[in-house]
Amino acid sequence: EGQGLLPLEVALMTRVNSAPACPNVLKLLEWFEHPGRYVMILERPDPCQDLHSFCEENGCLDESRAKKVLMQLINALKHCESRGVFHRDVKPQNLLICTDTNELKLLDFGCGHLLKDSEYKEFAGTLSFAPPEWFRSHSYRAGPATAWSLGVTLYKLLSARRSPVCRQEMANIQLFTDRNHRQSDK
């Protein structure tokens, strides 16, 4: 009993929650195995709301509040990187905001992976937050992909619009890039 492999999400959260913990990463309090699944008991700040729902109800963030949120998110992601964890699904739905303190918590490591220096060849996460290189070459690196998803997240928090780039725009970027590569080869 309990001799199975540690679920990756649990392993990643255990890594990022080891001391000293980061106040901007949701804490894993306990986890249990059940046949075919696992259950995690997580910290639940109160009052809190995911940032997507918060913006839907209250409108987009002003620049000052967005800056505070972004700085906390960067703190959380730098902490993850220092622990060898790549989140891979940074978006407003995976961020809790404590509505009385504006403290931010990064959650949902279900798409996460161990950080590596080489390229990732499989995509995990939300396509509308995927970096351009994924659409061009079906590979990406952790740092640039994280920076891209941070930018898309900030855009959404400030504008409350759909992601700034869609698949068709990515296809156009690829065509433009391919043409430029061909022209520069001449």
Task: Describe the secondary structure blueprint for this structure.
Blueprint: H1 8-17, E1 28-34, E2 37-42, E3 48-50, H2 51-58, H3 63-82, E4 85-86, E5 95-98, E6 104-106, E7 113-114, H4 132-137, H5 142-159, H6 167-184
Antiparallel strand pairs: 1-2, 3-5, 4-7, 5-6
Helix pairs in contact: 3-5
Descriptive report:
The structure is a single chain. Helix content is 43%, strand content 15%. It has helices spanning 8-17, 51-58, 63-82, 132-137, 142-159, 167-184, and strands spanning 28-34, 37-42, 48-50, 85-86, 95-98, 104-106, 113-114. The strands form three sheets. A three-stranded antiparallel beta sheet has the order 3-5-6. A two-stranded antiparallel sheet has the order 1-2. A two-stranded antiparallel sheet has the order 4-7. The longest helix is centred in the middle third of the chain and has 20 residues, at 63-82. Mean pLDDT is 87; it is low at 180-186.
